[in-house]
Amino acid sequence: MLKKIIKLVKEQKINISVPHFTRKVIAAGLAVVVLILSVMPITRQMVNVEQPQDRKVQTTEKIQEENKNLKAAQAVNEHQVSRGHLNRNEVYLLAMVINGEAYDEPYLGKVAVGAVILNRMQSKQFPNTLYGVISQDNAFESVTNNQYQRPLTADSIKAAEDAIKGWDPTNGALYFWNPATAQSKWVWSRPITGQIGRHVFAK
């Protein structure tokens, strides 16, 4: 009888412990699921937070780069503003002389001719006005023979504007001539700064 009771008790313990063990397993499983679900929104939230930060960093770097380029451009412009102010009619007059003197020259040669004219305006050796410089006797062949009145090209206008802005490919030259046609020996006594196209430039 005692053995039977013990057997029943044992069976009861087994029957009791099995559901209890099962509940533990289920509870542990639910805990794992809850933990996974709680981590997933955090991960998504972290991703969503990181992306705007990345864009913000990229935007900041872009703004800094643009500001750097703007400052560099301003520095160039400040360096170039040294030729005074010409009205629109004077810009066209300068372009006409460039067109006459350097009609077949490369664009750099056109700017160079404009630079020489403007350099003369700033030199004490020449008149300080555009009209005064170009109207000097035999100063520019195209003015003497009226070649400067030929149809004006867009390149000559742009070259005049670039020269006014401060572009001087001649390094401060006051004279230029074509060695193939120049008859004055005096010009060769001037310090030569370089040659562009068919023109030699000198101070």
Automatic annotation (TrEMBL):
InterPro entries associated with the record: Cell_wall_hydrolase_SleB, SleB_dom1
Q: Does the keyword Transmembrane helix apply?
A: yes
Do the record's keywords include Transmembrane?
yes
One Gene Ontology MF term: hydrolase activity
Superkingdom in the source lineage: Bacteria
Pfam families for the chain: Hydrolase_2 (PF07486)
Pinpoint the Cell wall hydrolase SleB domain residues: 105-202
Official protein name in the record: Cell wall hydrolase SleB
Keyword field: Hydrolase, Membrane, Transmembrane, Transmembrane helix
Stretches that traverse the bilayer: 21-42
